[in-house]
Design brief:
Layout lengths: L1 E4 L6 E5 L22 E6 L6 E8 L5 E9 L4 E2 L4 E6 L2 E6 L5 E6 L5 E2 L4 E2 L5 E8 L2 E8 L4 E6 L10 E6 L6 E6 L10 E5 L4 E4 L5 E2 L2 E2 L3 E6 L5 E6 L9 E6 L6 E4 L4 E6 L5 E6 L4 E7 L4 E8 L12 E2 L5 E7 L5 E7 H8 L1
Antiparallel strand pairs: 1-2, 2-31, 3-4, 4-5, 6-7, 7-8, 8-9, 10-12, 11-12, 12-13, 13-14, 15-16, 16-17, 17-18, 19-20, 21-22, 22-23, 23-24, 25-26, 26-27, 27-28, 29-30, 30-31
Length: 351
């Protein structure tokens, strides 16, 4: 681990990685930190097939423990009770990050599979999952204690955009799963969907606007708000309709509420305390921008080199205490590292 000060913003940045190799954190919708906001899971030694080792790292002491090998870089999510869940082909695996005991949570029939990443409810009892089941793209939930897929549904989207993914169980209302109709955003008129497992009902919760008879807004990279009442998403700069930027939509289906469009945003992650969004921008280098949800103001934390392909997107996200922004960046030799910025440390020094 190393630290340096950003020459443009003055932010102190902690880095985790190893020279000549590639290291990343989890996807921006999936928690990569343990509940103490001190230890995290890093995807290390990432290879050309995006296979890697999962390593438990203490960000204060630097102590590290390899807990799994040959897994997908973006597969995991850490629950509030310090369990790591990740897909492995047709199974979901679990590891207790305090005892390092591992187990198989549940399995699908041979030939089916779970996609990555998973999601988990705030009380750590329900996983949101997606994948292929019986030859169809499905969305579902897994009851962790029961160890089984309890609900599943096939949205049945038409080819060539038949894939449903990015399944995110609501952090509070665990019978609701937000998911995406995947595909080229300029061709997808119904990106945001909700699966109500109690009612066994699917609903498109955001009606994308048209312009001159064609799709007028291209959206994606959705994520639940911390209170579970709605979700944030990005209207990309390529959209014909403006303003572009970060929006919020209520889970009961509503018009989008504009949050901030100061930059050309790409991914936008909400903080667990509901006060912040951190976003990256779709450019080289990428700006990491902190947005205050109380007044919708923004400030740049740093600029970072990126890869245009996974796993080299910045994908900024928060620690459970909402203090630390975590992201992936490329060094001068184009190898990947994890960066960490304590936003409260920065805010205190700037006031």
């Amino acid at each position: 681990m190393n630290t340096y000060k950003d020459s443009m913003t003055g932010c102190r940045i902690q880095t985790i990685g190893q020279s000549g190799t590639d290291t990343s954190h989890y996807y921006f919708t999936a928690m990569t930190w343990l509940a103490d906001s001190r230890r995290l899971i890093a995807s290390t030694q990432i290879d050309a097939d995006k296979k890697c080792s999962y390593v438990l790292i203490d960000t204060e002491t630097g102590h590290s423990t390899v807990i799994a090998n040959g897994e997908q870089w973006a597969g995991g999510v850490v629950s509030s009770d310090d369990k790591l869940y990740f897909p492995r082909d047709n199974s979901v695996q679990g590891i207790d990050l305090n005892t390092l005991k591992s187990w198989t949570v549940c399995e699908l029939p041979s030939g089916d599979y779970f996609g990555e990443p998973l999601s988990v409810s705030d009380d750590a009892t329900v996983l949101g999952v997606y994948g292929m089941l019986g030859g169809q793209s499905f969305i579902g939930t897994v009851d962790v204690a029961a160890g089984k897929l309890t609900h599943q549904i096939a949205p049945g989207f038409a080819q060539p955009y038949e894939i449903a993914n990015h399944a995110m169980v609501n952090p509070v209302y665990d019978h609701l799963v937000l998911f995406a109709h995947e595909g080229k955003t300029e061709h997808i008129p119904d990106r945001l969907w909700l699966y109500d497992t109690v009612a066994s009902k699917l609903s498109n919760i955001y009606e994308q606007q048209q312009q001159d008879g064609s799709l007028g807004e291209y959206i994606g990279h959705e994520m639940w708000a911390a209170d579970g009442e709605g979700a944030y998403f990005v209207r990309y700069t390529s959209s014909p309709i403006t303003p572009t930027g970060i929006y919020y939509v209520d889970r009961h289906r509503s018009q989008g509420v504009f949050i901030n469009g100061d930059y050309g945003y790409w991914h936008a992650a909400a903080s667990p305390d509901g006060n912040w969004i951190v976003a990256d921008t779709h450019e080289q280098p990428s700006k990491l921008v902190l947005i205050d949800l109380r007044d919708h103001s923004s400030r740049v934390l740093t600029e970072v080199r990126l890869w245009w392909n996974h796993p080299g997107h910045p994908h900024p996200s928060f620690s459970p205490d909402s203090r630390k922004v975590t992201y992936t960046f490329a060094d001068d030799e184009n190898h990947l590292w994890i960066g960490i910025i304590d936003i409260y440390e920065e805010l205190e020094t700037k006031t």
